[in-house]
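Posting this for the archive.
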Amino acid sequence: MCDLGAGSGHTAALLRLWHGFHVTLLDVPPHPGAFGQRWIAQPIAALLAQKYSLPRHSYDGHSVPFPDDSFDTVLLAFVLHHCPDPERVLREAVRVSRRRVLVLEDTGSQSHWADALMNLEWNHPQQEHTRAEWLALFAACGLSVQHEQDWTSHYGVRVAHTLFVLEKGDGGRR
């Protein structure tokens, strides 16, 4: 599995610890306004990568540095809404996935300032998408939704999230 946009690496560490998954961490270097990435997430990712034997790589945010079909599954957790070109990033995830892409994203109205505060980031892309817009993007990238799970987070601000389990090819919705 590849955790694309791995951030602190905590999701990959939990998958490794609880389920024995082999997870590769992949993220972009922090941009100048990404204080949370530089001061918190990247140092934690380095420690977790070492502790749980998680390969950790950096990339340019455009071309994933792995061959086609390198991973059974690619996870993008709260990544695409920060990408200047989410379709390009998603197409790269599809390219390196043999079968499945998991996307966890905001689907309701979100507060840009709250996201920036939680991530300690300023001057970073932030795009709000509705469920319908995410579904259109997935379809444009050749993905079909196999499952959706909604829930709401409460961090002082109510935020709606959805986990999309996506399959490559024509697989019908279940």
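The first helix runs from residue 10 to 19. Strands lie at 2-4, 24-27, 56-58, 71-77, 97-106, 143-154, 158-168.
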